[in-house]
Structures are given as structure tokens and as C-alpha cells.
Design goal:
Elements lengths: L1 H14 L12 H14 L2 E3 L2 E3 L3 E6 L1 H7 L3 H19 L8 E6 L8 E6 L10 E4 L5 E3 L6 E4 L6 E2 L10 E5 L4 E5 L6 E3 L2 E3 L1 E3 L5 E4 L2 E7 L1
Parallel strand pairs: 3-4, 8-9
Antiparallel strand pairs: 1-2, 3-5, 6-7, 6-16, 8-10, 10-11, 11-14, 12-13, 12-15, 15-16
Length: 219
């Protein structure tokens, strides 16, 4: 099931704007399958269940690096997102942010590649919590104080949305998890479409401030 979901994400990458460079030789889906296998092979038992690798290195042949040159960043993002999806399906947890780096291996022949996977702990203890922005950017919600969203430049996340208040909402970690609190905004804060003043979030919740929707992820 997890591998199928992983493949669907990579297929969308191939069928979209990246399709032309990947029509022959090494396909992104092959990298996806290998990365998934590394997650399964190197998972381990933690206090709260299975922990999967979250840091990946993909080494490609020089010829393939040249072919993928204009799309390396997009490929890395898609692979990282697919790894998160695979972990959700399989019930794996991460102890830090998911990161995929692509490098060149001078001795590799075209079509050959190597994937290595490691468990790398993040700077925060407990589950790793992030907000996924509309542009795909990811902002960590740490233990160092509330994360404030709004239009003011001094906010932790600045949103260029006229329907967002200057200090609109904040996210903070508690003993129970991550809580979102509306800061008296004009247009309110909604979680999965329902207005809230304060609410404990679950992974996958959609938080809407003004006309902007963000996704909360916990792993």
C-alpha cells in the first residue's frame, strides 16, 4: 500500500512538467522504489513505535545529474513528500525533518545510482511538527515559543494576504501536542473549515487564516 502511494506521487512528477527529460534511461520511480525499500530495511523500534530513516542521500551518475540538472530540487521535494506519505501509510515515525540530497558519483555509470538512509534526530524532542505553506515551504513548530502568523514583518511567518490580520494566529507546543490560537483576528481562524479560538491539532489538519490555507503535519 505504501509503495503504491509512493509510486503514484512519482508518476505525477513524471507525467507533469518533468516528463520529457525522464522518458528514457533512469526513471524517478526507480529512485522512489529504492528509497522506500531503504526506509523499510532500516526502520527500527522506538519507544512509541517504528522509527524510519529521515535523511537520504541519492548518488547519481554524472550523465544522469546532467539530464536532471534543471529538476534536481523538484525531484528532491517530491521524494521527500513521498517518503512522508509512505511513513504515514506504514505507521512509521520520524525523529527529525525529512531531507533528500542528490549528489554526483563520478564512478557510476548512467542509469546506476545509490540511495543511503539514516535516522537523524532533529533539534527538538518529541514528534516533529511543521506547517506546510501554500508554496510548499515547510516551517518547523519548535519548543522555543509560539510561532506567530500575520502580515507584520516581525511575524515568524509573514503572509501577503489582505484578509490576514497583522498578528492573526499562533502555534505553540504543549504537553498534549500543538495548539493553534486565534489572536483576535478580524476574519478568524478555521481548522478543517470550522471556526476556532483555540484547538489542539492533529496531523493533516488544514488551518485557514484569511484566504490562506496551511497544512499541519506531525511525525
Amino acid at each position: 500500500m505504501g509503495l503504491q502511494q509512493f509510486e503514484k506521487r512519482l508518476e505525477r512528477l513524471v507525467e507533469g512538467t518533468l516528463a520529457k527529460p525522464f522518458r528514457s534511461n533512469l526513471q524517478p520511480i526507480e529512485i522512489g522504489r529504492r528509497l522506500t525499500r531503504e526506509m523499510d530495511l532500516h526502520r527500527r523500534v522506538g519507544v512509541h513505535g517504528l522509527i524510519a530513516p529521515n535523511s537520504f542521500t541519492v548518488t547519481l551518475a554524472p550523465a544522469d545529474v546532467d539530464r536532471f540538472a534543471n529538476f534536481i530540487d523538484a525531484l528532491s521535494r517530491e521524494l521527500a513528500d513521498a517518503a512522508r506519505e509512505h511513513a504515514r501509510v506504514e505507521g512509521y515515525s520520524f525523529v527529525g525533518p525529512v531531507d533528500v540530497q542528490v549528489y554526483e558519483g563520478a564512478r557510476l555509470r548512467a542509469g546506476r545510482f545509490v540511495v543511503t538512509a539514516e535516522v537523524v534526530e532533529g533539534p527538538e524532542e518529541g514528534p516533529y511538527a511543521v506547517l506546510v505553506l501554500p508554496d510548499g515551504g515547510r516551517v518547523e513548530i519548535g519548543d522555543g515559543g509560539p510561532l506567530v502568523l500575520g502580515r507584520l514583518p516581525e511575524c515568524d511567518v509573514v503572509l501577503n494576504d489582505p484578509n490576514v490580520s497583522r498578528r492573526h494566529a499562533e502555534f505553540r507546543r504543549t504537553a498534549d501536542g500543538v495548539v493553534v490560537t486565534d489572536l483576535g483576528s478580524t476574519n478568524g481562524t478555521r481548522v478543517n473549515g470550522a471556526p476556532v479560538r483555540e484547538q489542539l491539532l492533529e496531523s493533516g489538519d488544514e488551518v485557514t487564516v484569511g484566504s490562506t490555507t496551511l497544512v499541519f503535519e506531525l511525525s
